[in-house]
Design goal:
Layout: H1 2-34, H2 38-50, H3 54-67, H4 74-87, H5 91-104, H6 111-125, H7 134-149, H8 154-183, H9 187-200, H10 207-223, H11 227-247, H12 254-272
Helix pairs in contact: 2-3, 3-4, 4-5, 5-6, 6-7, 6-8, 7-8, 8-9, 9-10, 10-11, 10-12, 11-12
């Protein structure tokens, strides 16, 4: 019974302490938010920012942003205010703030960092490959602009990595669209899309796969054509197969391509008889 009483007392005490701490923190923030002592408000904003409480820090910086413009503190406030938005995953606002920082402080030692973070904010807004890729395209543009203006720097190398990830995402989306045309038996559309895919991503590790899809699509298109057009279209398949052999001599798909080459050659012979 005594042990039970002690346990209840400890739980109650801990709960009470937690509530005091919680309300104390809330009261401190409310006091800082309402305060017209801007040095105190700045001190509290710094405290929240250091403790990664970006929600509270952002609200205080929002007040300070308006009243401390032109002061010695303003650059640092602007810098941290922008990062608050970024850490809170409000990437659209962060992008605007990073941009604004560079415009307000073009000679700042932090302006290069802010340029990078602006581009990186677009990257963070880039959605899954299945969705609209407008922000992915924007991210590539801004990241590439950063690389061009800051060649050889560590951030430029990092930006280049993000560009590659964006390009992979765009390539994946284009690939899925091309496969969809093929699966729906829109063979001409599939050929055009896979050809565009190869031209857009000439260094892709999947180039041989894209070319093989072109061969397959052209072969299906030929088999379903009117008799008078079949020979010309099978000849196109033969040309595609020969091009594949020249371009991808080490490809694992060579055997499959050889099958289509033999089938197309035999079809041409039959049509000529």
């Amino acid at each position: 019974m005594r042990k039970l009483f002690v346990l209840i007392f400890l739980v109650t005490s801990i709960s009470s302490c937690s509530k005091i701490h919680l309300f104390g923190k809330k009261d401190s923030f409310s006091k800082a938010l309402k305060s017209t002592d801007y040095e105190y408000k700045l001190k509290m904003a710094e405290k929240y920012y250091i403790n990664k409480d970006y929600n509270h820090a952002q609200q205080l910086y929002d007040d300070l942003f308006r009243v401390m413009k032109g002061t010695d503190h303003f650059e640092d406030i602007y810098y941290k205010y922008a990062y608050c938005a970024f850490y809170l995953k409000d990437y659209s606002s962060a992008e605007n703030l990073f941009k604004g920082f560079v415009e307000a402080f073009p000679n700042s030692q932090k302006s290069d960092e802010m340029e990078f973070m602006r581009a990186f904010s677009f990257y963070k807004e880039s959605p899954k490959y299945q969705l609209d890729q407008t922000n992915t395209t924007k991210a590539i543009g801004f990241l590439q602009a950063y690389v061009n203006t800051h060649p050889g720097t560590d951030r430029a190398k990092e930006a280049q990595d993000y560009i590659e990830k964006c390009r992979q995402k765009l390539e994946r989306k284009d690939y899925e669209n091309a496969v969809l045309y093929y699966d729906l038996k829109y063979y001409r559309a599939a050929v055009i899309t896979f050809t565009t895919l190869m031209n857009t991503y000439p260094d892709s590790e999947k180039s041989d796969e894209y070319k093989f899809y072109i061969i397959r699509a052209n072969y299906q298109y030929a088999t379903e054509s009117f008799e008078e057009k079949k020979q010309t279209r099978f000849e196109q398949v033969v040309a595609d197969c020969n091009d594949f052999m020249d371009r991808f001599p080490e490809s694992k798909l060579k055997k499959n391509v050889q099958e289509y080459l033999d089938l197309s050659t035999n079809n041409i012979k039959t049509l000529k008889q």
